[in-house]
């Protein structure tokens, strides 16, 4: 009897161990990633200095492949690392969450930032960036720099969202658009700390070492990342240190163009693909009094619905309790689940 009990206990222990190990083995299977340098142009006419740029992208394809690619465009002073920040838990990796959901990702550096080419800053606008992203999308669809993809979801954050809106509205070549950290109303009462955090990159101890910069390139001054992008979310020293270490560039013209086309003109109404808008509840750049109401997904939807066409079938999502850079929020998995769930429903793999 004791022998049978011992065998039963061992079997139960083995089954319990297997129940724990199976999901661990599944999550340990990483997406296959490769670095790409994609030929792009800031315009489609042969003007001196505007053609022959290079956009860096990190392509990651989940095991078994995918026919749908999410193109991830970061915001100003961020690089592609925004979507997969080194040194932080996987819960802050947008890229891994999307790969784990069965989608391929291409995290890009905007031209003039990261490992992309660095033209004269005066050549860079949000419209020029949209044209470059369009070239990258076409290259990925055709399989010119990697496996071809049938569907494209264009994802932006902040300034990258303005670029995504312009690209999707102009070229209408994507199957879905995800806008994060961007609405059509700037929070005039609380945006000043973010704007005040910007200064010439040539005067910054870190960014001044980048070859070829001119005074039109900006970055955040030392120690300002929390105030500019995370406040009033919880202060996490590890998160802020990683964000500070990974800070990057923005060109002055990108801001002006993004405000004009992304905010002043209702250009987003030209988008005919499904759209998801996701914001931090406490985003000081776009949310608050006299700005967008980000207190709930429904309040956000009501405020943004008039800026999109009926074909966009606008959906909205709010990350509770955080500021502008919501992928760094402790509850970032809520964002990841919202995006992948929306993609499953509206676009498909």
Main sheet makeup: 8 strands, mixed
Mean pLDDT: 89
Based on CA atoms alone, the radius of gyration comes out at 21 Å
Helix fraction, binned, reads 25-40%
Distance between the termini: 54 Å
The helix/strand series, from N terminus to C terminus, equals HEEEHEHEHEHEEHHEHEHEH
Question: pLDDT under 50 segments (min length 5)?
Answer: 1-28
The number of E-state strands comes to 11
Task: Tell me the strand percentage band.
Answer: 15-25%
Given helix and strand content, the structural type is alpha/beta
Q: Which strand order spans the largest sheet, edge to edge or round the barrel?
A: 1-2-4-3-5-6-10-11
Helix segment count? 10
Q: Describe the global form.
A: globular
Could you walk me through the main structural features you see in this protein, from its secondary elements to its overall organization?
With 349 residues, the chain is α/β, with parallel strands linked by helices. Helix content is 34%, strand content 17%. It contains ten helices and eleven strands. The strands form two sheets. It has an eight-stranded mixed beta sheet, sandwiched between helices. Strands 7-8-9 form a three-stranded antiparallel beta sheet. Helix 3 (126-142) packs across helix 4 (159-171) and helix 4 packs across helix 8 (252-264). The longest helix has 26 residues, at 2-27. The termini are far apart. Residues 1-28 have low confidence and may be disordered.
Features:
alpha/beta; 34% helix; eight-stranded mixed β-sheet; 349 residues; 10 helices; three-stranded antiparallel β-sheet
């Amino acid at each position: 009897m004791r022998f049978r009990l011992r065998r039963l206990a061992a079997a139960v222990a083995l089954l319990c161990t297997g129940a724990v190990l199976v999901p661990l083995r599944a999550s340990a299977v990483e997406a296959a990633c490769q670095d790409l340098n994609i030929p792009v142009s800031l315009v489609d006419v042969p003007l001196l200095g505007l053609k022959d740029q290079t956009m860096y992208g990190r392509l990651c394809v989940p095991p078994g492949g995918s026919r749908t690619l999410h193109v991830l465009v970061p915001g100003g002073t961020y690089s592609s690392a925004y979507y997969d920040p080194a040194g932080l838990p996987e819960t802050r990796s947008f890229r891994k969450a999307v790969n784990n959901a069965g989608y391929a990702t291409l995290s890009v550096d905007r031209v003039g930032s990261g490992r992309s080419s660095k033209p004269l800053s005066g050549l860079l606008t949000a419209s020029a960036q949209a044209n470059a992203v369009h070239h990258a999308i076409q290259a990925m669809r055709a399989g010119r720099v990697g496996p071809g993809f049938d569907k494209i979801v264009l994802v932006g954050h902040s300034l990258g969202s303005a670029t995504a809106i312009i690209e999707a509205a102009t070229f209408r070549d994507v199957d879905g658009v995800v806008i994060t950290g961007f609405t059509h109303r700037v929070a005039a009462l609380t945006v000043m700390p973010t704007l005040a955090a910007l200064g010439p990159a040539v005067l910054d101890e870190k960014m001044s070492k980048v070859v070829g910069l001119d005074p039109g390139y900006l970055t955040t001054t030392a120690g300002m990342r929390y105030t500019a992008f995370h406040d009033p979310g919880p202060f996490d020293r590890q998160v802020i240190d990683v964000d500070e270490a990974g800070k990057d560039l923005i060109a002055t013209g990108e801001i002006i163009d993004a405000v004009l086309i992304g905010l002043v003109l209702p250009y987003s109404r030209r988008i005919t693909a499904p759209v998801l808008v996701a914001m931090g509840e406490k985003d000081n750049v776009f949310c608050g009094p006299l700005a967008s109401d980000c207190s709930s997904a429904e309040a956000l939807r009501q405020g943004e619905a008039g800026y999109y066409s009926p074909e966009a079938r606008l959906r909205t999502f709010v990350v509770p309790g955080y500021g502008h850079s919501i992928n760094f929020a402790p509850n970032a998995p809520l964002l990841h689940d919202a995006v992948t769930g929306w993609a499953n429903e509206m676009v498909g793999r």
